[in-house]
Amino acid sequence: MKTELNLHERILTLHRFPKRSNETLQAWDAGDEYLINHVEELALPDNQNILVINDSFGALSCWFSEKHHVTLMSDSFISHKGAQQNLEQNQCNKVAFATTMDLVPANIDLVLLQLPKSNRHLVWILSQLRKALPASCPVIAVNKAKDIHTSTLKLFEKYLGETKTSLAWKKHRLVFSQATVEPPIEVMPFTTWRVDGEDIELKNMPNVYSGESLDLGARFMLQHLPQDPSIDNVIDLGCGNGVLSVKFGQLNPNARLTCVDESFMALESAKQNLRDNLGENRDIQCIANNCLDGFKHSSSSMVMCNPPFHQQQAITDHIAWQMFCDAKQVLSENGRLLVIGNRHLGYDAKLKRLFGDKNVKLIASNNKFVILQATKNPAKLSAI
Predict the structure, then answer these.
(1) Where in the chain is the domain with CATH 3.40.50.150?
(2) Could you tell me if 297 and 303 are in contact, meaning their C-beta atoms sit under 8 angstroms apart?
(3) Residues 316-352: pLDDT tens digits?
(4) May I ask the CATH architecture of the domain 4-178?
(5) Bridge pairing between strands 233-237 and 256-261
(6) What's the pLDDT tens digit per position in 90-119?
(7) CATH code for residues 191-383
(8) DSSP 43-73
């Protein structure tokens, strides 16, 4: 697996975050290279103010910080951490960090954008750029050519301004646009809807997974959350909009709730949803983190999670495995890990390997999902 980006007689050493000894995935892609090559050909004067949006692990920020003032804007805690490590490792100049909830900085000369997976997030970003940028500021976006559809370009035209595309290079394409559309279209930060059959209303920021309706896995999990006064604190790992925590909090009014996610927008949504549905006085924490890094060992009576199987653009199961390993460390004795996953992902084998055969049981299943419970070293199996 390549760790050296070698272009224009410069070499950067780049790693994904968290750094893994058996890493098979690269920390940059051909889209980053295409953007770098294109901007180098522009021969910009030094000290430009460059806004880099969705820089997966900081390749673009590392590259352009050599001669320019860079602001990295991303909704991903993992991206922030990865970029910080790569900037340090390559002894780069300082970069300013922001989330996509923050205002676009003033006086930007150039915007570089890795297109997000979610169209809602893209629309939000484009609307914020339109509000903040002068018409003269170029916006250059990149993605795999197969993921740049006519509908994608129509979103640029509708929310930002006139848009053109480049020829494909290494299966990637550039999108060129400027903030010219009149009048600018106001985009609201939250989409709000009620959960069918539940006394729950959810607010969802633009980059929240399944932000326009409840995903089927979460809906199934809601039906099988325990009502148990012995669970005094629960961690919702990969919490998304916090729907599992809201329901768990309704069933267990004395439990302390900790929501963890790597998306800043997910956490902001979860915070609002817990407050709106459970009241201001509940014991609630919302933490941006890589899984359960830094959490106290043997400190929690329950962890629940609906693991993602992608990191940035890559499909991978290492995040689920890290979540399970971290949960085992953070659970107190007899603590329980409650997991939902697609049947084909084989989480039961992973959990049995980690917790022991006898300590993993099936809670519920349907034709698409399984809900599994793994118990940490139970002294008495009958007590579970």
Answers:
(1) 4-178, 191-383
(2) no
(3) 678 899 999 999 999 999 999 999 999 999 999 999 9
(4) 3-Layer(aba) Sandwich (3.40)
(5) parallel
(6) 999 999 999 999 999 999 999 999 999 999
(7) 3.40.50.150
(8) TPPSS-EEEEES-SSSHHHHHHTTTSEEEEE
